[in-house]
Amino acid sequence: RDYVRKYVEVNYIEGSDDEKWSKKDFPWTKKLEVNNKKVFGNHSFRPNQREIINATMSRNDVFVLMPTGGGKSLTYQLPALISPGVTIVISPLISLIQDQIMHLLQANISAAYLSANMEWTQQQEILRELCSGRCSYKLLYVTPEKVAKSDALLRQLENLYARELLDRIVIDEAHCVSQWGHDFRPDYQSLGILKQKFPKIPVLALTATATASVKEDVVQALGLVDCVIFRQSFNRPNLRYSVMPKTKKCMEDIDKFIKDNHFDECGIIYCLSRKDCERVAETLQESGHKAAFYHANMDPDKRVTVQKMWSKDETNIICATVAFGMGINKPDVRFVIHHSLPKSIEGYHQECGRAGRDGHRASCVLYYSYSDYIRIKHMLLHDMEQNSNANSGRVLETNTENLLRMVSYCENDVDCRRFLQLIHFGEKFDPVKCKKTCDNCFKDQNLIDKDVTEIAKHLVELVKSVKQRFSASHILEVYRGSLSQIVKKYGHNTLSLHGAGNSVAKGEASRVLHHLVVEEILIEDVKRNEYYGSVSSILKVNEKKAFNLLAGRHTIILRFPCSTKASNSSRNDTSTPAKGMLSFSKESPPRVDTPAQTQPELDTKLYA
Ligand code: ADP
Ligand code: MG
Ligand code: ZN
């Protein structure tokens, strides 16, 4: 990890930035300012834009972390325009590329792109233009698989390089390099070849999402040298965050939320499956909203139509899978609702980031149910079986880890949401600055640290004593002393720990149990039951990790709201499984549902 130490950290947030990049006496300063106004129509630069441009124009390798909508494109398009040769831009999606090229051509900047699914003759033409004496392109966009697989392209780049016409290599959406990111693309990993072949050409890597590990991966995979980092606070002060329990009434809750706070305004509802998208859109239509759905399984024409209608405000609400959004640049999105658990904190942050680009207030509401964790984990397993390769074990592990962090985020009803999100980007956010714009800060509750080690031990022991063959909700039932038919049927009412937790609030016990899953002391073993066609999950013990806990060498402390009735409050229980979301298989009895819990009036107050 030596390369980490080589960083020249230019940290915007902590004010430790190097003033030299903000100077206005570089040889290109005048040109920059003129072209920014004339060609791009901007009155000024946004934070960090001038600094990034100066650093890359000074031929440094530069790594840029800037929130979505911050204006990353300008930081390479403007240098490309005022440099003599060609800038190569690697970008993951054709739709993103086409959108960019359209804007460039509108501004009279010559640009082209190469992708694998283009006609070969068309590709030839572009390559020929590249090696012609007076290549007119200022920017050439390529997809990563082109770099990985096309020798013809590499030869043309070598040719440009030899003629000193290769100005700069730009890696847009650079987090795609890393398996730790939410959007891993294997072809990005082969981009390291560019730095090997063209060591003197400055590389500019740009992303809106990078945790410390993603950043390390990117720097290493691309082979960046003495890289200058520009990092901007990822906090979005105009967004309000909250997590709500997802119950059977979820659709009613969403309908009410929109009507009370954002009626007839523009929003996105992220759903897990295509079916969910359609169902959610339909239900909203029935309740009088202008809603449409959008997912990868649709006819491409239909997709374009839906997106256009949304851009023109002919529909207000798009119910979409995460396929919707990359490159979407609608400024007045007033709410982003997650109908189910996002797959990672970075993904969540990015999806929320599509709200409130215009700087006005917008809401981000996540409907959380622990059972969605099991659903998604099952989908991940399924994906792995479908595209199994040498890497899939590691990918699954990473995905599960990212997912568990999201569970932990949702289960946390204490810490500032901004703090919890930003810590993943290596940014330490002071919760005072939240000013009660997230649900947890809004609650303004007294908190108390509780030692829950005993509860944790009991739960682990219970999982063992039911032979690791039952679900989380069954374990909780037994722990709390339920005498339901199923508990009796398996004789679990005779276990010594049956009812051991009868004085512990349900919310408290389930939070401890979910904490054990997040800490990987307990493991959800998700299976599909071919016979019932259903998904089930049983809890197992991770012996290695459980050992210290059971041996009394591991203490678990969780923070709880401290009310007078702390230990039978239901406030913590944001995790009641929604009925009908999980059915049972032979090995595991049905989850026993408890009545839907509703959150205190927090919601309306927060948005009033
Ligand atoms: P990112 O890639 O960081 O998500 P973009 O480069 O797509 O962001 O820019 C987002 C929007 O901001 C675009 O509409 C762009 O025209 C606009 N923009 C960028 N820089 C400036 C600026 N200096 N002044 C005004 N608008 C800008
Ligand atoms: Mg961009
Ligand atoms: Zn907060």
UniProtKB/TrEMBL annotation:
Q: Which organism is it from?
A: Deinandra increscens subsp. villosa
Domain (Helicase C-terminal): give its ranges. Answer: 253-404
- Which chemical reaction does it catalyze? Couples ATP hydrolysis with the unwinding of duplex DNA by translocating in the 3'-5' direction
Give the span(s) annotated as Disordered: 565-598
> Where does the record place the Helicase ATP-binding domain?
53-228
Q: Under which name does UniProt file this protein? A: DNA 3'-5' helicase
List all Polar residues biased stretches: 565-577
Family the entry assigns: Belongs to the disease resistance NB-LRR family.
Q: What is its main location?
A: nucleus
For this UniProt entry, the molecular function terms from Gene Ontology, in alphabetical order, are: 3'-5' DNA helicase activity; ATP binding; DNA binding; four-way junction helicase activity; hydrolase activity
From the broadest rank down, the organism's phylogenetic lineage runs: Eukaryota, Viridiplantae, Streptophyta, Embryophyta, Tracheophyta
One biological process term from GO is:
cellular response to cold
Q: Keywords for this entry? A: ATP-binding, DNA-binding, Helicase, Hydrolase, Isomerase, Nucleotide-binding, Nucleus
User: What are the EC numbers?
Assistant: 5.6.2.4
Q: What general EC class does the enzyme of this chain belong to?
A: isomerase
Query: One cellular component GO annotation, for this chain's record?
Result: chromosome
Looking at the record's lineage, which domain of life comes first?
Eukaryota
